[in-house]
User: Which sequence fits this backbone?
């Protein structure tokens, strides 16, 4: 039985565990029918031209891990940003772990999707926002069909959340391959400010497939910063679908750090529904082995006077493959748009591959749109210069690569996250230096 | 000083909407509409072709009938009804012509209107012309002068008779019959086109030129061009095209194959001015063309195109850089106005070591038109030290048009250096104001700015074409000031 059949046939069992007489379930059923029709994406689809899921769809995933698992904090502490105080929403195999989490209902809501979907007091918010910006494509529909658990964050207007929020999904799957489908909803009110750190971590060498959907709504003047740390086990694959809707004068930034995992696909979509919006998309990818990272971004400029800034850096070693597919659409009404897109790549090995497709679709005439894409090598002269001065080749290369990626790191606003990423880069490049020289 | 004033220009623009929209009453022989194996055989028989050629066509037809029309391009149109097209139309003429005096006077008058006076060409301009009307080559000039150098320049139908070994060796090697839907169709039904062979070490002393014209209604034009530059040779090739204004959409599906052997260089320039349809978007030519060149060691192929006509343009002149140190270039200006749609660009396939490619693409959209650049730069794993530079600039006029960029970059070698940049902008109000202040009216100022915007590409055109192209740009953008 292939994975699609397995998923389709397990839907009945899923329905047993949820309240089927709700509006939410209608949305689920519709999405389920949509997935049943579309199936998993194949390379024939233009959006999946460079990424094949075939190798990971062959696994016999368990779709609903039934047993509650507990894990020791000491074992997983390293996956948290633990040197600062944060709110935490932690899931183990898709189930909420109250032991590892730290949620709140004090002025802001940092809690669970399951309670938001079921409790009456959240109903207005769910009705207004749930599945409102997510696209109806294959994998998003699949997630929506099984949407049940995840993080629910609601920040009322004029609130500055004093500490960052971490959303962490652990997968234990010690006996078998596991598939999880978290569903997050983040609603940020007028003039509110929040920082979110997101991580998916597998604790097993069995195959893991995570198909996550996150919807973010930023109201007028809101500021939202999201950091995605992707440094997963080599057997873990991730499809991260993020949909962001912005109102006037809001600023939303998403930083994606992709260092690990088998196949990682990031679908990052921004929809600008007001004027004077700024959208920031940044990413650093450093991979090796047979890893595959695909950044698929969309910025949809719908209203006038908005900006978007994209900056993605990639370093690819051994037989790894990188994909960057960035799309900017500027609608007829979106005059005075400024859209920048930058994608720079370094191929370290002869067997690594990069496929880039920076795409512009422009229907307005008074706009400034540019995209740049480069593929090149480290500057041999700079390398030689450093070696002359006694810096070993490996460290010199690492320094150059760090400098190459640094434009993305500079805009990280949480110092601890920046430090963590810097350490990860050092580990990734196999050197023991701090970079903060 | 020139007495040419802006009023003259305006007058000229008014009358010059599409000056090649006339239709010449000529007796012509046209096959009945429809396509099947018998039609393919009949075309082949008409051309007195050898057995292998007929088989080659039939093979292409069989492949084509199994293919589906591609839909991935960023254009929308009513698909041509392939059984409603006549696949062969030829001006009736005496079987053999010995000199131009024997050419049908109507035909000569047509050339006069097109601005190609064969007589004049023969005496003055240093350009050898092969003219194809409704898929059949009607006249080739300068045959003798070229012959002295060993250069073969003749209609491909004649080449099949006179130089079958050359045609057989190279035809379909760069664009195989099964390459794509329209290439397969062309391979099955092409009725004529140009063949050119430059022998080893010969530098072609003049520009070679082909002029294409669709004349009959209800027909499609399918011509085939094959240019072979043998080792160390050089040739510059020009191509121009026009069609009468008609309400129906006519199909033009051509195939151009260039082969540059070791150390050879081919420069291929196109000024494409098929009828673009009227200002409401009715009629116009569907221009679905496959153009590709193959570069052996140290060879160079340079494509230059000015695309102003056609209701739908769908073409990607490409270079396969097979040999080491080979060079591919692509310079393009695509102008769309009214309801025109263009999806054009290039493919640079780097296979050899130290290969270089340059892409400069300028898109100008006005009115309700859509203009897309679609390109592929592919560096294969053996292509050490490959270098590519791509630049795509778009200029938008008015907010009813669109400009799109779809670049694909695929790199499998770490020594590759790729740069791609694209910008989109409009003509600055300051720029216009500056011109206005100096007494240049808006229409002319736009022409001036567009000219500057396109200069990098216009400079690559041979002299005679550059002037024509500049005029074309002005005409195509007429009335887009708003």
Assistant:
């Amino acid at each position: 039985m292939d994975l699609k059949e397995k998923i389709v046939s397990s839907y009945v069992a899923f329905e047993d565990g949820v309240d089927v007489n709700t509006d939410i379930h209608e949305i689920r059923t519709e999405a389920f029918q949509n997935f049943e029709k579309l199936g998993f994406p194949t390379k024939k689809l233009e959006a999946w031209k460079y990424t094949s899921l075939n190798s990971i769809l062959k696994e016999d995933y368990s779709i609903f891990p039934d047993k509650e698992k507990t894990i020791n904090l000491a074992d997983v502490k390293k996956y948290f940003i633990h040197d600062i105080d944060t709110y935490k929403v932690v899931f183990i195999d898709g189930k909420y772990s109250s032991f590892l989490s730290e949620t709140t209902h004090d002025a802001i809501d940092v809690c669970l999707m399951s309670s938001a979907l079921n409790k009456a007091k959240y109903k207005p918010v769910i009705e207004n926002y749930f599945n409102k910006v997510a696209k109806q494509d294959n994998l998003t529909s699949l997630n929506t069909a099984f949407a049940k658990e995840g993080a629910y964050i609601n920040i009322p207007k004029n609130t500055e959340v004093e500490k960052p929020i971490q959303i962490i999904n652990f997968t234990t799957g010690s006996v078998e391959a596991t598939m999880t489908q978290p569903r997050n909803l983040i609603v940020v009110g007028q003039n509110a400010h929040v920082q979110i750190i997101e991580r998916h971590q597998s604790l097993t060498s069995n195959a893991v497939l995570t198909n996550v959907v996150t919807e973010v709504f930023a109201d007028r003047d809101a500021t939202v910063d999201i950091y995605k740390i992707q440094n997963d086990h080599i057997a873990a694959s991730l499809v991260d679908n993020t949909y962001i809707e912005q109102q006037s004068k809001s600023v939303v930034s998403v930083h994606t750090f992709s260092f690990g995992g088998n196949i990682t696909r990031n679908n990052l979509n921004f929809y600008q529904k007001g004027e004077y919006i700024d959208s920031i998309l940044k990413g650093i990818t450093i991979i090796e082995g047979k890893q595959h990272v695909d950044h698929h971004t969309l910025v949809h400029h719908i209203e006038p006077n908005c900006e978007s800034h994209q900056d993605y850096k990639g370093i690819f070693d051994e037989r790894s493959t990188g994909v960057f597919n960035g799309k900017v659409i500027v609608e007829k009404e979106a005059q005075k748009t400024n859209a920048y897109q930058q994608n720079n790549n370094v191929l370290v090995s002869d067997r690594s591959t990069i496929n880039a497709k920076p795409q512009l679709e422009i229907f307005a005439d008074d706009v400034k749109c540019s995209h740049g894409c480069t593929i090149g090598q480290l500057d041999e002269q700079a390398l030689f210069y450093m070696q002359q001065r006694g810096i070993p080749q490996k460290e010199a290369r690492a320094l150059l690569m760090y400098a190459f990626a640094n434009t993305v790191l500079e805009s990280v606003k949480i110092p601890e996250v920046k430090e963590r990423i810097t350490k990860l880069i050092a580990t990734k490049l196999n050197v023991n230096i701090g970079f903060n020289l | 000083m020139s007495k040419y004033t802006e009023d003259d220009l305006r007058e000229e623009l008014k009358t010059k909407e599409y000056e090649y929209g006339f239709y010449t009453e000529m007796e012509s022989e046209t096959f009945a509409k429809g396509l099947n194996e018998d039609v393919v055989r009949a075309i082949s028989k008409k051309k007195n072709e050898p057995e292998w050629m007929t088989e080659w066509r039939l093979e292409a037809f069989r492949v084509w009938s199994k293919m589906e029309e591609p839909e991935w391009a960023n254009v929308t149109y009513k698909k041509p009804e392939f059984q409603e097209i006549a696949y062969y139309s030829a001006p009736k003429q005496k079987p053999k012509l010995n000199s131009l005096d024997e050419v049908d006077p109507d035909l000569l008058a047509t050339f006069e209107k097109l601005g190609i006076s064969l007589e004049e060409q023969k005496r003055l301009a240093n350009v050898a012309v092969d003219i194809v009307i409704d898929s059949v080559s009607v006249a080739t000039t300068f045959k003798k002068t070229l012959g002295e150098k060993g250069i073969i320049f003749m209609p491909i139908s004649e080449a099949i008779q006179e130089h079958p070994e050359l045609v057989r060796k190279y035809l379909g090697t760069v664009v195989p019959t099964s390459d794509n839907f329209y290439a397969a169709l062309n391979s099955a039904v092409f009725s004529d086109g140009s063949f050119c062979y430059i022998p080893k070490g010969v530098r072609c002393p003049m520009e070679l030129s082909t002029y294409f014209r669709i004349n009959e209604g209800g027909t499609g034009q399918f011509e085939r061009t094959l240019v072979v530059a043998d080792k160390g040779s050089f040739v510059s090739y020009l191509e121009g095209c026009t069609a009468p204004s008609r309400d129906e959409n006519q199909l033009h599906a051509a195939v151009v194959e260039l082969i540059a052997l070791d150390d050879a260089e081919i420069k291929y320039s196109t000024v494409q001015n098929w009828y673009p349809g009227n200002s409401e978007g009715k009629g116009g030519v569907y221009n679905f063309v496959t153009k590709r060149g193959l570069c052996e060691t140290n060879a160079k192929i340079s494509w230059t195109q000015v695309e102003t006509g056609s209701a739908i343009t769908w073409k990607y002149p490409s270079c396969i850089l097979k040999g080491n140190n080979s060079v591919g270039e692509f310079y393009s200006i695509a102008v769309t106005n009214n309801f025109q749609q263009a999806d054009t660009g290039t493919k640079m396939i780097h296979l050899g070591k130290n290969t270089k490619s340059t892409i400069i693409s300028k898109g100008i959209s006005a009115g309700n038109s859509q203009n897309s650049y679609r390109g592929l730069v592919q560096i294969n794993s053996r292509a050490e030290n490959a270098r590519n530079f791509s630049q795509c600039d778009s200029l938008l006029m008015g907010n009813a048009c669109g400009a799109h960029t779809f670049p694909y970059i695929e790199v499998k070698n770490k020594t590759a250096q790729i740069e791609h940049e694209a910008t989109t902008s409009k003509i600055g109000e300051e720029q216009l104001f500056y011109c206005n202040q100096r007494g240049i009216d808006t229409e002319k100022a736009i022409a001036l700015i567009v000219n500057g915007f396109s200069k990098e590409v216009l400079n690559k055109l041979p002299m005679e074409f550059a002037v024509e192209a500049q005029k074309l740009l002005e005409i195509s953008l007429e009335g887009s000031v708003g």
User: Anything to note?
Assistant: DSSP finds ten helices and 20 strands in chain A. Residues 379-437 of chain A form one domain. The longest helix of chain A spans residues 393-409. Chain A touches chain B through 35 residues (CB under 8 Å).
